[in-house]
Amino acid sequence: TPVQWRVPRGGTLRNLRVRHNTTAGNGNAIVYTIRVNSVASLLAVSLASTTVDGSNLVNTVVVAAGDLLDVEVTKAADVAASPIDVVADLEFI
Questions:
Q1: How far apart are CA 22 and CA 45, in angstroms?
Q2: Mean pLDDT for back-to-back runs of 10 residues, the chain (93 residues)
Q3: What confidence score (pLDDT) does residue 63 get?
Q4: Which of 3, 13, 15, 17 is 20 to 30 Å from 59 by CA-CA measure?
Q5: Computed from CA positions of residues 75, 76, 79, 80, in that sequence, does the dihedral angle turn out positive or negative?
Q6: Inter-CA distances, 84 with 37, 66, 80, Å
Q7: pLDDT value for 64
């Protein structure tokens, strides 16, 4: 079950940034996607497991008060060892 948090007011999500503080693996992509009410949005970052920083500064997502947000992490191919100390942040305006 994903850890979700409820949006306290309506607004817009933008500028998703993801950081692998400790990279690992073979360089295959890991995708971090913001989900709204368990549905994937366009606000996502694809980042090689061996890359430190990635961002999506283009897409935005409108949310309503009470919506539930979570981050889905997917790997299309095996990355061997996963990065650790992963941090994601975004703007809520």
A1: 17
A2: 94 98 96 98 97 98 98 94 96 97
A3: 98
A4: 3
A5: positive
A6: 26, 31, 13
A7: 98
Q: State the Cα–Cα distance between residues 44 and 60, nearest whole angstrom.
A: 10
- E-state strands within the chain: 5-6, 11-22, 29-36, 39-48, 53-63, 68-74, 84-92
Rounded Cα distance, 5 and 21, in Å: 24
Under the phi-then-psi rule, with left for phi > 0, alpha for psi from -120 to 50, and beta for the rest, what region is 42? alpha
**d(C-alpha 79, C-alpha 8), whole Å:** 36
pLDDT at residue 1 in the model: 82
Instruction: Give the tokens for residue 56.
Output: 């999506």
Q: What is the pLDDT of residue 78?
A: 94
